[in-house]
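Problem: given the chain below (551 residues), write out its structure.
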Amino acid sequence: MTPNILTLIQNCQWFPSHFLIISENVFSPLLYYSYFAAAIPVIIIGLLIFLNGRKKLENRLLFLTTISLALWVFCALITWATEFPKYTMFFWALLIILEPLISFFAFYFSFVFFFKRDFSTIQKIIFSLPLLPIIILLPTRFTLLGYDLSNCDRAAIEGVLVSYAYITEIIFAVLIIIIGVIAFRKIKDLISRRQIVLVTIGILFFLLSFNLGNILESFTDNWYIGQYGLFGAPVFMAFLAYMIVKFKTFDIKLIGAQALVWALVILVGMEFLFVNDPINQIMVAVTLVVSGVLGLILIRSVKKEIALRESLEISNKGQENLIHIMNHQIKGFFGVARNIFAELLQSDDYGHMPEESKPLLEKGLESTAAGVNYVQEILRGSSAEKGLLSYDMKPIDIKSVVLSLLSEQKDIIQKKGLSFESKIVDGNYNTIGDAVQLKEAFKNLITNAIKYNDYRDPNCGIKISLMIKNNKIVFSVRDTGVGISEEDKQRLFIAGGMGKNSISLNVEASGFGLAFVKGVAEAHKGIVGYKSNEPQKGTTFYIELPLVKTI
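Solution.
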């Protein structure tokens, strides 16, 4: 270090720092409060979520996000407090890599939380590439050009790499918006959709406020702006805590309320750092005690609510198991009755049946067969929704499955007075799956199209198609029915979720058919969805399945 630089440093008269972050060089104790107000709730929520589910990838990624932010706060405080230029330069450089890392981990967490799966290897490489130039060029003059001693403000002079880091942060924020929209449109479950919205809004509020504060600091040389951007972090943690209590997100029940209460108590206690007046200190102490007492009352209240909720869940589970057993028994009774009617109609072992009795026997056979199918639909739908349905996964040709189904359903459709049209585009329809369960799922969509068509329309009919689209196998059924109301859309694929007109249009509706279809589609790594035929009548339901090009 040259004598001129040493003279400049001595003339600046910086105060010594203690524990790296405690120093009179920090212009105001309020800065400590703003930094810790962001870091403490983040660390508490992140750590508790991690400890309660450390094997889950989304929990680990959220923990990495919170720890990265906590490290950023620590490094930022050192740059404020230290009297050593070399410390400023070192920890300033760490801030530059930590900021895009926080955005990357937040994006990674969002993807896993939304889609319940990890990145593929290729995706990990692609999304990590923007960080590579920052890591490689971090110790070079592309990052920091030097140290500004002109005004004794202990600031590093930033290079062009800092602007690039800000661009990567913006890119990750935009990607979070994109995957949030995709997940919201793809996932039909109402509760999952609400969680997607909450996480997207919360994490974007945090990232945009945090990144915008840092960007404004760099371009205005006003190094006090960034502290205001940090308040987005506790807001995001508040969103997560609400989800933990409301939706049991991360499989955690009580810690959301506990974390908020103790974070509040700690933050109130931290006011002692910058309150010197005895009267104000007494007021802070009283506030601290009141906050602690009210917090304990809140935790106990939440605990009682959770206990009551769990008790109701146990009761509901018992009722559900009883209904499942009853359905199995009813299915057995119907099955016996069906076999008896069939035997009486088809066998001569019991003597010649009078012609007058045959219509009655046929009606009995038809009714008991419908009863078996009804109960079977409930059992299949319930099992598929819970993931309990067994599958015989092996290479299959979806085209042959659909052709077999169409040969069975064509006459049924036409006997109902509906026009029938099918279109199978030439191509390779190979995939891995259970041909029997997939055929039942396809059949369910056709059966629904038959039952819910508008028979008052002289042009009523059904169109069935099979094609390859965007490297996916797409099976679709288009009807000319009454359509789906906004109210019914929320419960379409939920077990027992019948629409308001289901019973009037289909007296045999169980509400479990589409739940079965959804379970089968997801078990095959596919999706089921629907779209309106507007401006024409009716709805088109479709199942998308992954295409396996080589079997």
